[in-house]
């Protein structure tokens, strides 16, 4: 919602913002402050990432100047955009429990570029988080995007971003659980992380 839209406007204006400004922007959406326990740093960061992904989908798909950039120039552009946002220095118990690590836009772009996506691909991101990697499936205009995320709040973000199918399963068992009619032609994901 509102925080993601605030982030989109900041990025459109190429306006750098701080963590404290992000937390202040969250105040109205969450009905109070971080100090009051109305939201966590992770809630704010997830809303920020949703805003980044909405911005990227709109900017890279619909801005004619950017859609003709070379791959190298696209990576440089994404690195510049990433320089406008605050770093995620606060880790939460949820982030550790679900092994949540956000992929910077430039790296997400390169992972998708390396996957050599085309318009016939059925795309799967088995641990999609807030969609940082999968949003590029939309930008590359693949046929269908299937995402999976175990954390319920993040799965809601994926639904709001409009992916074709959203599942909430343990990614380790995804191959055993997905319906038989889902046959991905490409899987793009972060490497597995472990807290052990």
Could you characterize the architecture of this molecule?
The structure is a single chain. By secondary structure, the protein is α/β, with parallel strands linked by helices. The chain is 48% helix and 7% strand. It has 10 helices and 4 strands. It has helices spanning 2-12, 19-30, 41-62, 64-67, 71-82, 93-97, 105-114, 135-139, 152-160, 174-177; strands at residues 122-125, 144-148, 165-167, 186-187. The protein has a 4-stranded parallel β-sheet, with helices on one face. α5 (71-82) packs antiparallel against α7. The longest helix has 22 residues, at 41-62. The chain starts with a helix and ends in a 9-residue tail after the last strand. The model has no long low-confidence stretch (mean pLDDT 88).
Residue-averaged pLDDT: 88
Calculate Rg over CA atoms. Answer: 17 Å
**Class derived from helix and strand content:** alpha/beta
**Apparent shape:** globular
Low-pLDDT sequence parts: none
- Could you estimate the helical fraction of the residues in percent? 40-55%
Strand order within the widest sheet?
3-2-1-4
How many angstroms does the end-to-end distance come to? 35 Å
